Structure prediction request, 1086 residues.
Amino acid sequence: MNIRSCFSLFMLLASRTSATDSLERVDPSGQQIRFWHQHTRERKDALEALIRKFNETNPHKIEISAEYAGQYSDIYNKMIAGLRTGDVAHLIVAYQNQAVTYSMASGLVDLQPYVDSDKWGLTQEEKDDYFPAFYEQDMAHGIRLGFPPNRSMEVLYYNVDWLKELGFDTPPRTWEQFREMVCAAKGKPFSKSLLPGASIGYQLSIDTSRFAAMVFSRGGSLANKDNSAYTLNTPEARETLEFLQNLFKEGCAKQVAERYGDQADFGAGSLLFSIASSSGLPFYKLVVDHGAQFQWDVAALPQKGETPIQNIYGASLSIPKTTPQQQLAAWLFIRWFTSPAQQAQWAQSSNYFPVRKSVALQMEDYFEKNIAYKHAFDLLQYGTFEPLMAGYDLVRDLIEQTMASVVDGKPAVPALQKLEKEANAILSDYY
Amino acid sequence: MAMRHLKDTVTAYAMLFPALFLLGLFGIFPVGYAFYVSLHKWLISPGDFVGFEHYKKALGEPQGALLLGAALLCLSLGKLFSRPIESKGRHSPRKAALVSWPLICLACALFLLGARYISQHGDPRFLKGLRITSMYAIYSIPLQLTMALGLAFLLHQKLRGKGAYRTILFLPYVTPIMASAIVFRSLFSPRETSIANRIIGFVGLQPLRWLSEDDHVIQVLGDITGWTLSLPVWIDAWVPSLALASVILYNIWVYVGYDMLIFMAGLTQIPPELLDAASIDGANSRCILRHVILPLLSPTLYFLSMVAVIGTFKAFNHIYVLRTPAAQGTVDTASVFIFDTFFKRNNAGYASCLSLLLLVVILSLTLIQRRVVGKRVFYG
Amino acid sequence: MKKKNIPIHAMLVFSCLIAMLPFAWMLSASFMSRGDILTRQILPQVVQWKNYMDSWNQARFGLYFRNSMVISSLQVFGIWITCSLAAYPLARLSFPGKNILFLLILSTLMIPQSVTLVPNVLIVAWLDKHTPVAWINNWPSLTIPFMSNAFAIFFLRQFFAVIPGEFWDAARVDGASHLRFLIRVVIPMSKAPLLTLGMLSFMGAWNALAWPLLVTNTPAWRPLSVGLLNLVEEAGIELHLQMAGATISVLPILAIYALIQRQFTDSIIQTGIKG
Prediction:
């Protein structure tokens, strides 16, 4: 870290104590808050409904106006421009690594004082109600860059009926079992498959979230403890890639032909396992209902240890630096939005997961109708997350290229060495 | 005479003013701003002034760039010398050759030295991007323009259904990228059942991975036919990967209709009387094409070739949508690299530097084109 | 139909088939149901006209369509005016600095958009604060910066340059100024290039996305391209609505093109000089 960011970090930490005192005295009434988001269609409608509810019911007469700001890269553009012109929204959606970049430009407010505040923050009981990984994810060196409004998770989708036909009663617990099942599927297509000739056990879609999930499941991680360097040439990473490479060699797995091809093939009954985001649950339901119509479910990825370790991710809400009143008003919305009642509603309309455990109590009905969702929900407590580093998006691209080349047959170790070197070179841009 | 000249100058600038004002504000200012940004360590907000650090990172120490600059200088001097000697009336080719050819040779040598230095010390990914961009331009522009010219010429004849043909052939340019990319991705998908694979299946070939294939075309051909052709490294680097070849096909598909449209506009400026007169004089259509149409079309051709070069070097959208990780960056042109540097690496300083370097490259190509082709344009 | 034309027609038809394929698929997908999309059909089982209604409503097409029409038309008129004026001297006059100016103009084409977005927003924000007109979230920022562009200037220059000098001589004898000559003679003679340019500029304005998203915050002045983005779901399964929306957005451009390409049937240089 260079002197400049060290210094601003120090100032932030030092100012925190004084900030907390003055925070209690800030008056958020009547503030008009602009909120840049990237949701479309049903999610946008659901979000706007919740915002209307907040505007009507909050005691401080705070008014939030939601502005669709494009996709994540468009919001990024707006933020950069806004940081220069001074014209930023008061509340934005940002992925963690974008947030790190914004905060390097001193563009974001540290939310921890708000969380810890006696008057405006969360009680200890409330803090404990958050799933630990969700609560931790937005922290960088003791500073809170964002707060999670929702999350998704990598899960294993599996065809229950086909698995039974192959002679297995439960989803794979270990990677060895995974391999066994996947290779068994090669020889024995699903009886109800719409595309029997194209039968295969697993299709890999090249995505860093998949890679990370697989490394996590083996007990590994992608960076060191304090996020100062990438650790991509680890035994777990090697195991992950070599495992996949062997599956490919044996013909038990192949690459997805096009985006969401695995979804379509799963629905047609010609794919046994798919590892993908839980936010795809409604789409998997659709493809199966329109496809081979069989029983399916989700489970944790195969694991090395006893307790599952799952990859969770999602964008967070961040607050750019504006005025203390506006910042507080924005925080109050965040606090309201992440309370159980609202989370229950948001989760059901958006197909994301809620961030608090107690929400389960309000979602009993929904769980009954969506068993797969419930099974995934039960795994949220085992979450962990990808590293929070500036420039991570580019490293994701590099990881994906490495994945593609290794499953294609190139040796894993030199590829991972090269990857780690390049990733850390990118990191040096910032520090 | 001088009065008229002054008057002309004033008129010229007066007429140019509105456009220049807008372009200056929204076109030139960003270039200047980008230069300013490139001189700083600038992620998303201004950092320390670092001078030419970014440029050194991209190109290595100044030697390389200076060698290239010297090469350009020699080239223009060489061309410069060949002109006055001709225009003096005493057309003495020997004297011209004596001065201009050695200069041109020197220019080539300097260029090669400079390029070699830069390739050893510069940013490998950026240079790879430049190389891919050049390949993309070299392999798509001539094909595009030839096909477009042929089609425009064909559709300028008396032909039934002309209007329908013209409209349909323009569809690729008009079709939203969202739709055409989806279709192309599935046409050229690695699936055995994709259309592209079915077509080559007819000829008895194994399915290929198209957009996901990072091996280059000759290697792929070698794999299919069993003939191995090993080429020297420096030729190897200029053969596109199959993924890049697929992207090139996509771009030719998109832009042929567009080029054709502009050629058509150019063809309308040719007076039919000239064509009638030529055929009365007994010229056949190939002769007419060569001696009447092409010269009269040369302004349009010049325009399109310049615009095509600028366009392909800057091209972005139609390439970005077809990228896959499996292509291992063989589709990443310079503009894709710049985009990623800006958005994923969050490094505005370096991205601006690279944009300016790209601008210099395009400008040089434009200047060279101007010298080589521009002089042959017939404005009538 | 002449016999020797058959191979030509065959080749043209083949080219057309290739050219049409994605468009045809887009059209077909726009009438599909979700089930058709998921099961990868080529043709819809039942034609879903309601997709068009749905995407129109969901993406607020009424407002966005109007905005796009206004924005694109304004840009085209601006380009016609400024770029004809600018192309004329570059094509037909000689004055000091001409070559350098031309290169300078051309160089504005050579810089990628990702780099120009932010500085242009800075200018627009400054103008917003210091002029009586609102720029942010309003039509000026969406039209004025694009009312002049190097492509148009270069394009028109090529066409203006081929007009024979005799026309100018005749006009000068009649006492016309350059401006008058431009308006009375050059422009009417350049209908085809002007219309072509108009259409291409219209398309450019119609499809612009990154800039409108940057300078607008509310739907009031957002163009159709933003509306289309609204139809894009993160998991991308609602393709049928997306394609319906895309088809709607393509229709005006196709209409304009169909009208224009008729102009190409005849050469339109009238020989005004007899003898």
